[in-house]
Design brief:
Elements lengths: L8 E2 L4 E5 L4 E6 L1 H7 L2 E5 L6 E2 L4 E7 L3 E5 L4 E6 L1 H5 L2 H5 L7 E5 L11 H9 L1
Antiparallel strand pairs: 1-2, 2-3, 3-9, 4-6, 5-8, 6-7, 8-9
Length: 127
């Protein structure tokens, strides 16, 4: 597994969350997740303005092997989606921690406290 970025928080469902200004949380999938999925061929992202609840499935990623639901790690409004990964899903395979999926304007950043640290996520994925 690649080294986990220390500035991110990690969900049990293999999403990463990056806290930005103004309660904005940028969300992507982990390198572990993209490796498990294999070559990505399709990404469906949530609609702008949609209100999501923490752990709610709101996006889908498909690979040559399977499809996987992507959940929001926090409750809030979808304020941005990354059209570049919709147009070219393989970008996620190439740079999982650079290629984000969507941004949520979080209702309560305290929900991020339920996420894993890099060390805890690594422990979960390596056993």
């Amino acid at each position: 597994m690649s080294l986990l970025p220390e500035h991110l928080k990690y969900a049990l469902s293999h999403e990463w969350a990056q806290i930005e200004d103004d309660n904005i949380v940028r969300v992507g999938i982990t390198d572990f997740a993209q490796q498990e999925l294999g070559d990505l061929v399709y990404v469906e992202l949530p609609d702008l303005g949609r209100h999501v609840v923490a752990n709610e499935s709101c996006a889908t990623i498909e690979s040559v092997k399977t499809a996987s639901d992507i959940s929001s790690p926090v409750s809030g409004e979808i304020i941005a989606v990354n059209q570049a990964v919709v147009d070219d899903p393989e970008k996620i395979n190439d740079a999982a921690y650079t290629e984000w999926l969507f941004c949520v304007k979080a209702d309560d950043l305290a929900e991020l406290e339920k996420l894993l640290s890099p060390a805890a996520y690594e422990e979960m994925t390596t056993g």
